[in-house]
UniProtKB/TrEMBL annotation, chain A:
The lineage of its organism: Eukaryota, Fungi, Dikarya, Ascomycota, Pezizomycotina. CDD domains: SR_beta. The chain crosses the membrane at residues 17-38. It is a single-pass membrane protein. Keywords: Endoplasmic reticulum, GTP-binding, Membrane, Nucleotide-binding, Receptor, Transmembrane, Transmembrane helix. Belongs to the SRP receptor beta subunit family. This is Signal recognition particle receptor subunit beta. Its main location: endoplasmic reticulum.
Automatic annotation (TrEMBL), chain B:
One of its GO terms (biological process) is intracellular protein transport. It comes from Amylocarpus encephaloides. This is Signal recognition particle receptor subunit alpha homolog. One of its GO terms (cellular component) is signal recognition particle receptor complex. Residues 157-303 are annotated as: Disordered. Its main location: endoplasmic reticulum. PANTHER family: SIGNAL RECOGNITION PARTICLE RECEPTOR SUBUNIT ALPHA. Keywords: Endoplasmic reticulum, GTP-binding, Membrane, Nucleotide-binding, Receptor. The lineage of its organism: Eukaryota, Fungi, Dikarya, Ascomycota, Pezizomycotina. It holds the Pfam family SRP54_N. GO terms for molecular function: GTP binding; GTPase activity; signal recognition particle binding. Heterodimer of an alpha and a beta chain. It is found in: Endoplasmic reticulum membrane.
Length: 267, 663
């Protein structure tokens, strides 16, 4: 009993040692908390647009075109993602700003956004998928396709549809799971590139052929073998069915209910 | 001659390029896919740091040879493309020199985030390097550069030698005032001295001083030996210098008429080199006061340099950059001395190991990498593949800073995980059903005729070829295909009967599902290739969707047995050749995969692996990695049990987790 009393005395007495410790703690804890909390939240990032698409569809070219404004740089196969800061021309109004006055001075400055390029090579697609699973202020996705490589029965169409299917399925799952905090709709623009080539398909045909091919992807995925890792951890990982359950043909319109807007455009 | 030289980032943007004759961009694209992404030639090549171009294996594609080198921290790649017919020995040196120059000149621009634009006016530098190296190569065909160049060439090209350090401070001040180049003054005190003294023992300087003429050397010697006098009589010295300049100028102009690029840089070297000669003559005088030397050189250089040729500035600048880079490299390789310093750094290292923010070196990684290698070996990864993986990770990690509160071990773990994932992820999707559909019911637009899809299965004896074939058959039958099973094992007794039993079972199982399966067999002793060929014709006539061909098991290092595979591949012409490998096999898996992969003749390789008996090895699924490592062919299926339904697609995540789990 006296021993414990002695301890309590020592602990509560205003010894210089205890004072020093208290001061150090008092000074460091706020700094520590600050670094932890603010590192987690990150800096306010610019709104970003993600460029995805199979290899050779012209993602990096488009990126440099947007950045430089005058002409696209010569490019080769990408190995790493890159993001550049782009400006919208003065006077363009973002949709979120539609209630602002026309004379608002903020309309007179360039609006900045980040354009994120991802590698399209099969082994490196995890960069793009990572960007989708934990997006930072992601405002939209541009899925670039090579319109000249999309004719029926070609390998290019198969690869493109595969990739697009994966991306759309990921977006759909993201919207289905309510756990994703602040899950906002992410519109997808399918941009048909290389329209100057002779074999390029027009936008409407790009849309229908992609839809038809995704129908096939969906069917064969549902029939295929199970993954070897099944039942490993996350409960069952049921393979998703993209679009309306039970529908025979896939249409981009079907996934609008998951707030995934898909719009094919060509240039 | 060089075809094209490009400087590009890892994100694919070409920063600068010089094209002499246009080459297809597919050459460089192929280099990137094969060497950097798929790492067919060199593990970890895409992320390796600062290896000289000579150490990187040249990549050959379509009559062109590509030489390359990378800078990891900036993420840029230097690529030189030339015709394979030409033997250009100086390309390595060119690529290395250009790398040093470019990084030095534009390094800080490259570090800027969120931009791909690099303002560069690199043409002059490049042209200068090309001319210089070409000339050196011409003057001495077979011998290597450096020492021999001095003896054979006129003083003109002595000045041109990249290793000779030019008078640095003078030209730098000029460079700053005129061209606004990057400020280098911070590191010129070392470059001036060190190369000089290291050079002075070679015969070069004696030769130079002899050639420089008595006038120049005397003046230089005076300048070097009487610094006090020099600083006081600065004006007279400068005057004399100018006079000398005038007399030299005539000479220089005469050389100019020859059309050679670098002769005018002779002037400054004419002074500096004899100075070296003087110091080398007197061994004791080697350790002259560096500060004094620097001051006089700078004053001297800036005065003579007024209104001189631009080309000269460029030349000197290039040399100074190269020389300073050399010095930097030397100083970085030199071991740090001093007991106190090393112990402090050791303690700091331990501390950082816990807190993070430590820059990794080879020594830090060595022990941990050994542990990782042992771990992989315990997981039944073949030694060759384990070493390759570890080397790749090591190359990737050297020079990398660990994140805060991240230990070295954790960093290695995560790097190995991404490395394994990269090696196992297939390049293109492996959807067998869609491929079959594309062949058996081609779309009306494509001009292909309907034909059966042919899959053949090869492998060593007893790995489960027939079992896996029937598993695939079951999977196809469930998807309502008409399947023809072909018994091409015409060698082992009982092989045909074994397949017949499988087919009978499958028929019963799939009767309700609507699939149809038949056996095609011609008994024993026939040539397997002919049987296979006939069966494909038969299947096309009878309207089968898929032909599954079973082959005899063969030892992969038996040349006689393996040679028949080439004929087989030619006759049957399968859409997919799958090799069955068992998960139980250890180191031999690499040789198996490699031998089978090369046995089908030119232009035909394996299309996929089936790794059988994965249920019998638990976590030790290293064979997956070994086989993919050896051939770059993806794993299509894994067998996980005894039943027809125990066939699975490979989940990369599952495999990586098993391989890295510790127990």
């Amino acid at each position: 009993m006296p021993a414990t009393k002695g301890w309590v005395d020592v602990l509560l007495s205003p010894s210089p040692f205890a004072l020093v410790i208290a001061v150090i703690l008092a000074l460091t804890i706020p700094i520590f908390l600050h670094s932890v909390v603010f590192r987690a939240s990150g800096l306010t990032t610019l709104p970003s647009i993600l460029l995805v698409g199979p290899s050779g569809s012209g993602k990096t070219s488009l990126l440099t075109l947007f950045e430089r404004g005058t002409g696209a740089a010569q490019t080769h196969t990408s190995q790493s993602p890159v993001s550049v800061e782009c400006h919208l021309p003065v006077g363009t109004q973002a949709q979120s700003d539609k209630y602002r006055s026309v004379n608002d001075p903020t309309n007179l400055v360039h609006k900045k956004f980040l354009l994120v390029d991802t590698p399209g090579h099969g082994k490196l697609r995890h960069h793009a998928l990572n960007n989708l699973t934990n997006p930072q202020n992601l405002k939209g996705i541009i899925f670039l396709v090579d319109a000249a490589a999309l004719s029926a029965g070609e390998e290019g169409l198969r690869q493109t549809a595969d990739y697009l299917h994966d991306i759309l399925l990921l977006l759909q799952k993201r919207m289905e799971s309510k756990t994703a905090k602040g899950a906002k709709e992410i519109p997808v623009l399918i941009a048909a590139n290389k329209m100057d080539l002779f074999t390029a398909l027009p936008a409407a045909l790009v849309k229908t052929s992609l839809e038809a091919e995704i129908t096939k992807v969906r069917a064969s995925r549902s029939k295929g073998l199970l993954d070897s890792g099944i039942g490993m951890e996350e409960d069952g990982e049921q393979d998703g069915w993209l679009g309306e359950v039970g529908s025979t043909d896939f249409k981009f319109a079907q996934i609008e209910e998951f707030d995934v807007l898909v719009e094919p455009k060509s240039r | 001659m060089l075809d094209t030289f490009e400087i590009l980032t890892t994100s694919g943007v070409v920063l600068w390029s010089k094209t002499y004759s246009s080459v297809s961009p597919t050459i460089i694209n192929n280099l990137i896919t094969n060497v950097f992404i798929e790492e067919r030639t060199l593990p970890g090549a895409g992320i390796a740091d600062d290896v000289s171009a000579a150490n990187n294996p040249p990549y050959k594609y379509d009559q062109h040879t590509v030489k390359w080198t990378t800078v990891k921290e900036l993420g840029i790649i230097f690529v030189a493309v030339y015709r394979s017919l030409l033997h250009l020995s100086w390309i390595d040196k060119l690529v290395d020199n250009i790398k040093t120059l470019f990084v030095d000149l534009y390094g800080d621009q490259l570090k800027k985030p969120h931009t791909t634009v690099v303002e560069c006016h690199f043409d002059e530098y490049f042209d200068q390097q090309v001319q210089e190296l070409e000339k050196t190569a011409l003057n001495q065909d077979t011998r290597t550069a450096e020492s021999t160049a001095f003896l054979e060439e006129a003083p003109v090209s002595i000045a041109a030698d990249p290793d000779e350090p030019p008078p640095l401070p003078g030209l730098l001040s000029r460079g700053q005032s005129k061209n606004n180049y990057r400020d280098l003054t911070s590191n010129d005190s070392t470059p001036v001295i060190t190369p000089d003294t290291s050079r002075s023992s070679t015969p070069v300087n004696h030769l130079l001083s002899a050639k420089g003429g008595p006038k120049g050397s005397r003046r230089a010697r005076k300048a070097a030996n009487t610094p006090a006098y020099q600083s006081s009589g600065d004006e007279s010295y400068a005057k004399r210098n100018r006079a000398a300049k005038a007399s030299e100028k005539k000479k220089g102009r005469k050389w100019d008429a020859d059309g050679l690029a670098d002769e005018d840089s002779d002037t400054p070297l004419d002074y500096s080199a004899p100075a070296n000669g003087a110091t080398s003559g007197e061994e004791e005088a080697k350790e002259r006061p560096s500060a004094v030397e620097e001051v006089e050189q700078s004053s001297w250089g800036s005065k003579t340099g007024k209104g001189q040729f631009v080309l000269k500035d460029l030349d000197d600048q290039v040399h100074s950059i190269l020389a300073s880079a050399d010095v930097k490299k030397e100083s970085s390789t030199a071991p740090s001395t001093g007991l106190v310093g090393s112990s402090i750094s050791a303690i700091g290292g331990l501390f950082r190991n816990v807190v993070g923010g430590k820059t990794l070196t080879k020594e830090d990684l060595e022990k941990a990498m050994k542990g990782m290698e042992d771990h992989l070996l315990r997981k039944n990864v073949a030694r060759e593949a384990a070493i390759r993986l570890c080397e790749g990770v090591e190359r990737e990690l050297i020079g990398v800073k660990t994140a805060s509160f991240e230990s070295v071990q954790a960093r290695i773990q995560s790097a190995m995980e991404s490395s394994l994932r990269k090696i196992l992820t297939p390049t293109s999707s492996l959807d067998l059903l869609r491929e079959i559909d594309a062949v058996t019911s081609p779309s009306a637009l494509s001009l292909q005729k309907r034909r059966p899809y042919v899959i053949s299965i090869v492998g060593v004896n007893g790995v489960g070829k027939s079992t896996n074939l029937s598993k695939i058959c079951f999977f196809l039958l469930q998807n309502k295909y008409k399947v023809l099973v072909v018994a091409c094992d015409t060698f082992r007794s009982g092989a045909v009967e074994q397949l017949a039993v499988h087919v009978r079972n499958l028929k019963e199982l799939s009767a309700r599902e609507g699939g149809k399966v038949e056996l095609y067999q011609k008994g024993y002793g026939k040539d397997a290739a002919n049987v296979a060929k006939d069966s494909v014709v038969f299947a096309a006539a009878e309207g089968f969707d898929v032909v599954l061909i079973d082959t005899a098991g063969r030892r992969h290092n038996d040349q006689r047995l393996m040679s028949s595979l080439e004929k087989f591949a030619k006759f049957a012409n399968p859409d997919k050749i799958l090799m069955v490998g068992e998960a139980l096999v250890g180191t031999d898996s690499v040789a198996q995969a490699r031998n089978f992969n090369t046995s089908f003749g030119a232009g035909r390789t394996l299309d996929g692996f089936i790794i059988s008996k994965c249920d019998t090895v638990g976590d030790m699924v290293g064979t997956l990695v070994s086989m993919v490592h050896a051939t770059n062919v993806p794993v299509l299926f894994v067998g996980v049990g005894q039943h027809y339904s125990d066939l699975r697609n490979l989940s990369v995540k599952w495999a990586v987790e098993k391989l890295l789990s510790s127990n």
